[in-house]
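(rape) hypothetical protein: structure, please.
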Amino acid sequence: MVSRNKSDSSMRDKFQLLRSVTNSHAESETSIITDASKYIKNLKKKVEEINNVTTSEQYFCDPTDPMVTVDTLENGFLINITSRKNDGGMLVCLLEAFEDLGLDVVEARVSCTDSFSMHAVGSSNNDDGESMDAEAVKQAVEVAVRTRSDGHEQKW
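Here you go.
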């Protein structure tokens, strides 16, 4: 019997603590739990709002946007470009950069709805035996992307 009284007392203490943490004025255990549930939902909502603000701040100050990666393949390069913003003419600008580099696009997937994403496989069409390295391709693509992103006007 003593053990049960300790357990009941401990449970009442825990409900009282829950009641105070959640600023509940409820008396019944069920109401305290309901208030605690509402409190947790409000906290989740606040966390989501803070995350949204943080994400939108990163959108405007992210130094890694746009991001370009170039990996060397056996017969060319795998080129990935992602940008949070889709500037008009980005695809044309990139294709011109590939042409200037002497890369033929063998395969590509492009998405340019709200943001810009391109995954392309390019192979070198240089017949002079001169080989290209991934870093040179990356630098040329980054220049093309940044030039386009910095607001150069479209020429049509």
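Notes: Helices lie at 2-21, 29-61, 90-101, 134-149.
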